[in-house]
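Deviations from the work plan: none for this task. Representative record:
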Amino acid sequence: NAGVTQTPKFQVLKTGQSMTLQCAQDMNHEYMSWYRQDPGMGLRLIHYSVGAGITDQGEVPNGYNVSRSTTEDFPLRLLSAAPSQTSVYFCASSVGQPSNQPQHFGDGTRLSIL
Amino acid sequence: QQQVKQSPQSLIVQKGGISIINCAYENTAFDYFPWYQQFPGKGPALLIAIRPDVSEKKEGRFTISFNKSAKQFSLHIMDSQPGDSATYFCAASCRYNTNAGKSTFGDGTTLTVKP
């Protein structure tokens, strides 16, 4: 049972490049989220989805797009990378809302923007 | 506005000692308070969680104490071990209102347990 799988684990981009961070879960969870983790700032919610075809913005959505075409996958797209987006990105899933159920996190994607 | 404030930022404890991490929240609508443990290079993993209808929850060496009137909750790690060395995050969320389901995290506490 793989749980939540994130790819790639590491990535270096140049300013202005675009890329997609992949997230897949095999637990049939309806709820999925993307967070970024910066030193001393905890986890901040970027976007989330309550089910296939439904997405919404979190606390820090600017510069990121998401889509949810299947229950399993929830990719995060950086449209035009900026140095301020250098961070560690975590994808999480839960069987229901995080207010009722624990979230299961992937191991993260470490992204550097030069 | 930070809705969940966590302290201390870092903590050093001797093996066998008690580690205490505190969190304070502002939104009285919060009704679910989990703690996550994160090891270097890994994602956070749920450690223990509590709802405001109880004042304490214990799982092995880990205990959450909850004070609804003070809007505070804390994690106690008894008999701390070097293997407990990790970053700990508190979080809070609520089931209702416009922010239903969204989790708010504290900034994290880096715990080091010395042998």
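Chain A touches chain B at residues 4, 31, 33, 35, 40-45, 48, 50, 58, 90, 92, 97-100, 102-108 (CB under 8 Å).
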